[in-house]
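Page 47, continued from p. 46.
Same chain as before, 333 aa.
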Amino acid sequence: MGMNFRGSSGAWLELADMPGLFDTNQPLVREKTEKYSLPFGDVEFRQIVLPETYIVFGDMCIRDRRLQMEAPDFRDIVELHFVLTGKGVITQHVANKPLVLAPNRQNMFYTPVFSGCAEYDPDVPYRFFEIHFTREKFLHLVQDCGPTLQTFCDHIIAGEQMQLSEQGIPSNSATQQCIHSILNCPYQGGLKLLFLQSKCVELLVLQAEAYDQYLKNNQKSALKSNYDRDRIQFVRDYLIANAVAPPSLSELAQLSGLNEFKLKKGFREVFNDSIINYVNEYKLLQAKEQLLSHVPIKHVAEELGYSSIQYFSKMFKKKFGVSPGLFTRDAQD
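Result:
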């Protein structure tokens, strides 16, 4: 039950199969990584299959700007899709409505029958993360979850195609951290299954929460054009590149060409976070990664621009509930 792709060469290829998703007689956690060098590009899929849940991380460098895609079988699944890098547009032939794929955005789909085309930016790798729940599993998880998901569920029950948003909704640092935890699960056996199942449900909760916030923020949007949204994305990329010594709000406004009000409100609309908190969260996640790689605490604090080890330790403990020293010792055990 995979997806077929066809580039300009004209040959259909089946990729990213979901083996035994509905088979209860399989091992509880199965993983595999597949790499392909194809006429239309190079792709890699890392797949994790749990009971009634399928996880995939994809890394694609597409040379053909336009691909044809189709699902050869009925796909009675709900997909949570997270764009990590790259951008593109997918158009399904039946609906004939474009679905915009943009970095740091997420969406939810129910597409039992799919046939369409996709256009990707050939200059930037398209990296994505997906969680697929079987229809029954999803409906069980979200029953009585309120109006946010009720309309979505009504379409699923009716067997009708549905998506949360045509443009996608913002992914925040909590979402990114949850994805990172899934891809770097430290457990084995039964604990691994419990951990991955809990994180998949956590991502579903975070997405529903993000959609609620997205609707509230966009009752009166500060961003009036695609240009405004592109400038907000530029600001985010600039902040990440200069996270050690981030620019002031006035400097960001001057760099982006947006006034400070539009910049602050627009950034929160797109990333569901304030500018300063987004940078702080990013730095702490980077600190965690460096500590896991056995970089000394003093070096981590200095490299990430903290004024002192004491202040870094305070912020780290506030975020993760444990001091950097204890975190490092636990990671080494």
